[in-house]
Amino acid sequence: MRKPWMAGVLAGLLLLGACGDPSSGPESAAPVPSAPRASSTTHQRPAATPGTDTGTGTGTGTGTEAEPNTEPSTGASTAAGAPAQRTRPTVLYLGDSLAMENQKVLGGLMRDELKARYTSAPYSGTTLCDYLEGTGKDSLVPPKDKAAALVRTLRPDFVVLQFWGNAWGYTPCMDGITHGKAQSKYFARYTADARRLTDQIAGAAGGARPKVVWVLQGPDPMTPDRVRRVNAIYERQAAASGDLLADAGKAVSPASARYTWSQYLPCTAYEREHPAYCTQPSNGRTALHIDDDYLHFCLVPTTTTPRPCPVRSPGILRITRAITRAVASQLD
User: What is this structure's pTM?
Assistant: First the structure.
C-alpha cells in the first residue's frame, strides 16, 4: 500500500517541478449523464482566453449544461460580512489548476441551484499575483482577464478565488519566491497579494463591491503546514475585508483530521445513492485522487493537451458543493 502511494507522489513531484501548479485550458467535454461534469488538469498553460456565460448552458471556456441529481454530499462553508445579495447572483470564478478542473461542475451547480450568471477564467500554474493588474508580461494571465478587468466588465456579486498556493517557482510574477527556499518571503508575499487583489477588486467595482469568496484548500501530503498557513492568510483577509470563506478543503479531508491527506474517504450518503461517486462500494469508500497525482481531484491522468476531466470525480463534486453553499448562504 505504501509503495504505490510513494510512486504516485514522486511522479506528481516530477510533473509539478516542471510546470508549477498545472491545469487545463478551455475545451468542451462530452456530457456525463445524471451528475455534474468535471474538468481535468494538464501541465500546460491555457491555449485560449476564457469567455463569459450568460446562464444559457455555455460556461466560460469550459461551461456546461446544468445537470440533475446534484444534491449536497459533504463539506462545509463559512461566511463573514454582510449577507443578502440579489436573488439571481452574478458569479466570477478565478484560480489555478484546481479551479480549472472544478469550473464546469461549479458552473452547473451555480446555474441549477442558484440561477446564477456564471463566468470562470482560471489559468494554469497561477498565483494571486497573476490576477493583479500591473504584473504585465511577468504574469500567466493576460490583461483582459485580470480580476479587476473582469470585475469592471461583468459587475459580479461574488468573486470566487481558489488558489492552492503555488510553491514551485513557475509563476514569473512571484519573482522566484518559493516555499521551499524562502518560506517567510513566500507567506509574506501571499499575504500582501491577497490584500492587493481584494483592493483591486473593490476599486474596479466602484460603488457596488462584490463579495470575495476565499476557497480554503485541502491537505497537502508533502508540506501539510504550508496549506494550513495559506488558508490562514485567506481567513485573515476575509475577516479584514468583510468577505467570505468556503471551506472546500474540509470536504476532502478526514472528518477528524482537517489537514491529514487521504486518497480515500468514506462515501457520503449521496455517493452511496449514486454509485458512480462511490468508487469502492464494497469498502464503503471513494477515491479523491488517482495514484500518481496527490494534488488534483480528477480521477483520470492529466494530459499534455488541455481538456476537461471526462469522468465523474467525487472530490470535485464535494469541493464545488462547498463553494456553492457559501454563495447560497448570502442570498435572499
Answer: 0.79
